[in-house]
Design a protein that fits this description.
- It contains 4 helices and 8 strands; from the N terminus they run αββααββββββα.
- The chain is an alpha/beta fold and 174 residues long.
- Strands 1-8-7-4-2-3 form a 6-stranded mixed beta sheet.
- Strand 7 and strand 8 form a beta hairpin.
């Protein structure tokens, strides 16, 4: 029975879309004064991701800041910058595996022989950092960082990226 439960639990754990979010901010800043934002274009242009994903992040930041009452405006109080980092993690499971079917070590079919062989899989660990810079002083006043695993084969990338951005901006002190 445990040969059925353990792989199932491992599959559930690996497919969890949990995002860990951290934020830090300048405690001497009154965040209620920030009503307008614009994007720090020269910083965003250096982010090495596709233009499609870059636009998804920008649109999600606009949407989430708008819900906080902070509107995009060329005469801004805050400059918004972001950066992404992704690393591919390879997972190797060198455990005992329960097999069904033909075994070259036995005559005919053997239902349930045990063997040791590695099973490998990979996943992408992504990090999205969003920075809010005071437009007048050019100092970083807030930073939110989200860590999570990215499903590159997900059909609705807009939803996935918006979820990432929303969880980060939810940490904004308003």
């Amino acid at each position: 029975m445990r040969f059925i439960i353990y792989p199932f639990l491992l599959l559930i754990i690996l497919n969890c879309n949990s995002i860990r979010v951290f934020s830090d901010f300048d405690r001497n800043v009154d965040f209620s004064n920030y009503k307008n934002f614009s994007f720090y274009k020269s910083g965003i242009d250096q982010v090495l991701i596709s233009d499609l994903d870059k636009n998804r992040i920008i649109n999600s930041i606009k949407l989430n800041l708008d819900s906080l009452g902070i509107k995009e405006n060329s005469n801004s109080d805050i400059l918004v910058n972001f950066n992404v980092d992704a690393t591919n993690q390879i997972i190797i499971n060198n455990g005992l595996h329960y097999n069904y079917g033909y075994s070259p070590y036995y005559w005919g079919y053997n239902y349930g022989y045990n063997s040791y062989y590695p099973i490998t899989s990979s996943r992408i660990k992504g990090e999205l950092t969003i920075d809010f810079i005071d437009a007048k002083t050019k100092r970083l006043v807030w930073q939110g960082i989200g860590h999570g695993f990215i499903n590159v084969y997900m059909k609705d990338r807009d939803k996935q990226i918006n979820n990432f951005v929303k969880q980060i901006i939810d940490k904004y002190p308003n």
